[in-house]
Specification:
4-stranded antiparallel sheet; mainly beta; 5-stranded antiparallel sheet; about 300 residues; 2 helices
Length: about 300
């Protein structure tokens, strides 16, 4: 009897499993806004205020359960809740680009035109200079486990233009074209795309390899999900159908969500992030059954 009851408890508790990843992406220009995906319906939903136009040039996770967005034209960095509510906003130097959460919960961001890496103290709201990247057009920004910050920028003028990955110690990698995005995982790998059908990888020693390449698939954005160890990207197949693709650590690809509807027209200027799934709350009847089972086990043990 005791074993049966214990098996019931395990079965009921298993119902409180972790849910599927929560996908959020931000878009620019006419389609500028904050979007999520209803995974049950494979449908894109805009969750920020549609009464305001936004030019969201970057999106990152903040405090593991919030969203950090940079509005390029409004010179503002926002913290949003998962339902699209603005929790805080910071007026910053002109033309902010990439932004991430740095040490002590502060915000580090790149200033696109003046080549600066700056910090917002979230307590005092002071916007302070960190260092000069010594390059033009600083855009994407990430950090590795050492807390070293890396930014992507452009040097020189056409036709003598280079695209570089910069840290505080100087240039660490030269791109052949300006990457669409730059993403870090928890193993110090950096991922980027110089064309929409190929994803390249830099390992912790900045050695380059091809992570994924398929001329029939267009990958618009990319993100790493530490909760399950997979990588995800929103993309289109050769028939222009929109899907959420899942990648394993070796670049193997599968469709995670198929035939997504409602996507904005401008996806190739979007940034993707994934919030850790939260445990599902058991239904009331499940809770009652669980408590009853626990009480029965207690009586048996007595």
């Amino acid at each position: 009897m005791k074993k049966v009851l214990l098996a019931l408890i395990i079965l009921l508790t298993a119902g409180s499993s972790y849910g599927s990843p929560s996908f959020y992406f931000a878009s620019r220009y006419d389609a500028g806004g904050l979007y999520t995906i209803n995974t049950a319906a494979s449908e894109v939903i805009r969750i920020d205020s549609v009464s305001q136009s936004h030019d969201f040039i970057s999106l990152a996770t903040f405090d593991s359960d919030k969203l950090l967005l940079t509005d390029f034209t409004r010179n503002t960095i926002y913290v949003y809740s998962q339902d699209g509510t603005v929790l805080s906003e910071y007026s910053v130097s002109p033309s902010p680009a990439g932004a991430i959460q740095g040490s002590a919960g502060n915000i580090c961001y790149s200033s696109y035109y003046d080549s600066q890496i700056r910090k917002i103290d979230v307590t005092t709201q002071n916007d302070v200079f960190l260092y000069d990247a010594d390059i033009e057009r600083t855009r994407h920004i990430v950090k590795r486990s050492s807390d070293t910050i890396y930014v992507v920028g452009r040097a020189g003028t056409p036709p003598n233009t280079t695209f570089e990955l910069i840290s505080i110690t100087g240039t660490v990698y030269n791109f052949t074209a300006f990457p669409s995005w730059l993403v870090a995982d928890d193993n110090d790998n950096l991922f980027f795309s110089e064309n929409t059908s190929t994803i390249l990888k830099l390992d912790g020693d900045n050695n380059e390899s091809v992570f994924f390449s398929d001329p029939d698939i267009t990958i618009y954005n990319f993100a790493y999900n530490a909760a399950d160890g997979y990588y995800y990207g929103i993309g289109a197949d050769e028939w222009s159908a929109i899907h959420v693709y899942q990648f394993d650590k070796n670049g193997g690809i599968s469709q995670y969500l198929s035939d997504i509807s409602g996507a904005p027209s401008v996806l190739n200027n979007s940034y993707l992030t994934i919030l850790d799934p939260v445990p599902a709350i058991p239904e009331p009847l499940t809770v009652i059954l669980l408590l009853t089972s626990l009480a029965a086990v207690h009586r048996v043990r007595k």
